[in-house]
UniProtKB/TrEMBL annotation, chain A:
Alphabetical list of InterPro entries matching this protein: GTP-bd (IPR006073), P-loop_NTPase (IPR027417), Small_GTP-bd (IPR005225)
PANTHER family: TRNA MODIFICATION GTPASE GTPBP3 (PTHR42714), TRNA MODIFICATION GTPASE GTPBP3, MITOCHONDRIAL (PTHR42714:SF2)
Upper lineage: Archaea, Methanobacteriati, Methanobacteriota, Stenosarchaea group, Halobacteria
Protein name: Era-like GTP-binding protein
Domain G: 28-172
Automatic annotation (TrEMBL), chain B:
Native organism: Halomarina ordinaria
Name this protein carries in UniProt: DUF2073 domain-containing protein
InterPro entries named among the record's database cross-references: OapB-like
Amino acid sequence: MGLLTDIRDSISRVTTRFFEGPNQEPKRIGIYGPPNAGKTTLANRIARDWTGDAVGPESHVPHETRRARRKENVEIQRNGHSVTIDIVDTPGVTTKVDYKEFLEHDIEKDDAVRRSREATEGVAEAMHWLREDVDGVIYVLDSAEDPFTQVNTMLIGIIESRDLPVLIFANKIDLDESSVQRISNAFPQHETVPLSALEGENMDEVYDKIAEYFA
Amino acid sequence: MPEYTTSDGEGVQIDLISGERMSNLRTMEKIRLILDGVHKGNIVILEDGLSPDEESKLIEVTMNEISPDEFTGIEIETYPRPSRNEGGFLGRLMGRDTDDNKLTVIGPANRIETLHKDENLISALVTRK
C-alpha cells in the first residue's frame, strides 16, 4: 500500500504542477537564507520595483527581521506575461542566538535580550512556514561569504525534501570579495543568479528567473 | 540514558547513538533525546543523522528553548547530502533518497565550534565548561 500511495502522491504532485491554470492564486514565495544575506534588501527591492512600497527596515545588525513579513499581490511583468506572487521575507535561519551578539552593536542588555527572544520566535516561525505555507523559495546567500555552512546545507536539504521550486540568489556582487562561482559550486543542483539587491544590479535576470520558476 | 560523572567533573560526555536506536523513535522522541543531552552539556553523535523534516523540527524546538545566560542553542554539523536530482527519475518520483543517512554531530553552541567542514571531513573543537 505504501508503494502505491507514494506513486499516487508523486504523480498527483507532478500533474498539479503541470496543469495549474493561468488564473490561480498568487504563489507564496519565501525568501530564506542565513542572517545578513540581504533578504530584506531584496524583498524591498522587488516590492518597490513592482508596487512602490517597502516590506520592512534593513540593517547591518543581525536578526533585524524577527518576524516573517509578507507583501501580497506583487505583479511582475515579463515578456508580455505577468506573474503575481506574495513575497514572504523571513528572519535569517540559525541554530543559535546569543543576546550578547547584540551588545556588540551598542544595544542595551534589556533590548538585546528582547531582540534575541523575538529572533528565536521568528526563526521557529520561519521553519514552520517552510514546512506548511510556502509554494517556492528564493534562497539568498552573501556571495562574499563561505556558502558551505550547516544551516545552508540543512535548509537546502529541507527545501529539496519538500519538492519546492528553489532559486539561489548570490547577493552582494558589488563587494570585492564576492564569488558567485563558489556558490554555484556549493549547490550545483540549483540555478544560481548573481545580483546586488542594494545596488539593483542584474535585476532584469532576477525577474526573468522569478517569472520562469514561479509562474 | 545512563548518566556518568567524570573523575574531575570537567570532562566532556559524548553520546554516540546508533541508527538502530533512533529508528525506533518518533520525531519528537529523537529531538528530546538530542536536546536533553545537549542541555546537559553533552556532545551527541548520531550514526545515521536526521531526515530533513526532523532537522527542521530540531531547529524549531531549539529556538523555543533558547534562554538568555542559560542555553544559546546548538551547533550541528553533518556532511552535505547528495543532490536529490542525482537519484534518478524513479528515486525522485518515489521521493526516495537512499543515501540520506549521514553521521551528525550536535552539541551546545557555547561548547562546540566547527573548525573545518567539507564533503568528507568535519573538524570540531569541543571545550569544557
